[in-house]
Automatic annotation (TrEMBL):
Regions annotated as coiled coil: none
Name recorded for this polypeptide: NAD(P)-dependent oxidoreductase
Entries under Pfam families matching the protein: NAD_binding_10
Chain ranges passing through the membrane: none
Domain NAD(P)-binding: 11-183
Similarity comment: Belongs to the NAD(P)-dependent epimerase/dehydratase family.
SUPFAM superfamilies: NAD(P)-binding Rossmann-fold domains
């Protein structure tokens, strides 16, 4: 009888998923993989690479099909749910995104239960930093339990928030939500989409490399994982050395290319100043302590990316960086681009991404006038409205009442345990049921208000918890 663990992997052809598949195959003495791939991707490079490998079994199917998920989870020890639609594609097809990301999570949970594996199959779910929205300085330090706050027009974050709630309230014996940050992967140079301009130069990210993400996913399947790892939320981050301001990230890329000027291909007023996502994590070391995975730096990533670029692309990028400016400007002026919003006086997008048209008008037109800010590297934590040092086994009704009042609402039910739903009322009067764990540890709050950005101003006035991350001025 085989002692190998069987892992069902979704998203096997994506950046993190394919790297995870390769990592698991390297551990073929301990794992066999059932890898989900859509039938139309039978000729994908990842399939060709691993086809015929005895450690890999292809599951031809789709996250939206519950029968496909039942075939996928049947008899497995662990599910690595990495697959789904991501931005920018996710925001262009919102209905499809909800079916894939929310429906997929629901189908996996239901399939595990239907197979009678709720006590034996562990589920690792990959969430996203986008769930907590833009966290510009001075609230650029974050930890799990901070308020879910979704940037406007971010359907991806809406879908991932709802999917996370399904997993966290699934009743499975072992589940975990790992909120992914920006993944530095070798194909980033190929990204050519207006979303490039949605990310503020003064914003921050605590990056992680795709290789380290893959090691994390694979390591989460090992027997050495402590029991305390499960039923928790974690921020995936590379740690102190991978905490950079976005303009620093641009310089790291430029150095790897041998460029003298990192910003020759665009101008400062082309990029948004808010309404994206990203933060430095005050708690990402907690995940590293539980399941060690870090081994790479942004410089490692940049060298690998440049090495994989065609020689002509490297040559042009190194010696003629300004050549790309007209191409980039055309992108910014196209559909979904920041300059397109300005040209069409699209106040809804302008207000969301710049604060106002007047604020955009004041932005510098030359890099010589741009302030390359350095936000504080001293950790600053938000107030969660209860004693976060308490173990969930020690929570009392007073903790839930205190947290609910800090959110401008009330706890209406009784506390049974961390994973039994109880009743709450939000600051705007909506009543809902939620597990204390999701409410306190996950930072989820009213399911109606949480994904409705039009309610955020009203919530700020009545919800001190949320007001910490919804300031008047960024």
């Amino acid at each position: 009888m085989s002692t190998k663990k069987t892992v069902f992997l979704t998203g096997a052809t994506g950046n993190m998923g394919s790297a995870t598949l390769a990592e698991l195959v390297r551990r073929a003495d301990r794992f066999r993989v059932k890898a989900l791939v859509r039938p139309e991707e039978r000729n994908h490079a990842v399939v060709k690479r691993f086809d015929g490998n005895p450690a890999v079994e292809w599951v031809w199917g789709d996250l939206t099909n519950v029968e496909d998920m039942r075939r996928g989870v049947a008899g497995v020890d662990q599910v690595l749910h990495i697959g789904g639609m991501v931005s920018p594609l996710a925001d262009k097809f919102p209905e499809r995104t909800m079916k894939v990301n929310v429906g997929g999570a629901r189908n996996i949970v239901e399939a595990i239960k239907a197979a009678g594996q709720a006590e034996t199959t562990s589920l690792v779910y990959i969430g996203t930093v986008a769930q907590t929205g833009h966290r510009n300085a001075p609230v650029h330090w974050g930890r799990t339990g901070d308020p879910i706050k979704i940037s406007r027009f971010d359907q991806y974050a809406v879908s991932k928030t709802e999917a996370e709630a399904i997993v966290a309230q699934s009743g499975l014996k072992r589940w975990v939500s790992l909120r992914q940050t920006g993944i530095a992967h070798p194909n980033m140079w190929k990204i050519f989409d207006p979303i490039i301009f949605h990310n503020p130069f003064a914003g921050v990210f605590e990056w992680v490399t795709v290789g380290d993400s893959a090691r994390l996913a694979a390591n989460a399947c090992e027997d050495a994982v402590p029991e305390a790892f499960w039923k928790q939320f974690y921020n995936i981050g590379g740690g102190e050395k991978l905490r950079v301001v976005n303009h620093e990230f641009a310089r790291i890329t430029a150095r790897a290319l041998g460029q003298k000027e990192a910003f020759a291909s665009y101008l400062p007023h082309w990029s948004a100043t808010r309404n994206f996502h990203g933060q430095w994590y005050a708690d990402s070391d907690r995940l590293e302590e539980m399941v060690p995975f870090r081994s790479e730096t942004l410089e490692d990533w940049a060298r690998e990316m440049v090495a994989g670029m065609p020689a002509l692309v490297r040559l042009i990028a190194r010696w003629f960086p300004g050549v790309g400016r007209s191409r980039m400007e055309k992108l910014a002026k196209g559909p979904g681009g920041t300059l397109n919003w300005i040209a069409n006086d699209d106040r809804e997008h302008i207000d969301a991404y710049f604060g106002s048209r007047e604020a955009w008008e004041k932005l510098p037109r030359d890099w010589a006038d741009f302030e390359f800010r350095q936000p504080s590297r001293e950790v600053s934590l938000l107030d969660h409205g209860y004693d976060t040092g308490k173990h969930e086994h020690d929570w009392t009704g007073d903790d839930l009442r205190s947290a609910a009042e800090f959110r401008g609402g009330k706890h209406l039910g009784a506390l049974h345990d961390a994973d039994s739903p109880t009743q709450f009322r939000c600051a705007l009067g909506h009543e809902f049921a939620m597990t204390p764990r999701l409410y306190l540890k996950g930072g989820h709050w009213c399911p109606t208000c949480m994904i409705d950005q039009s309610s955020y101003d009203a919530n700020k006035a009545a919800n001190p918890f949320f007001a910490q991350v919804w300031p008047d001025v960024d």
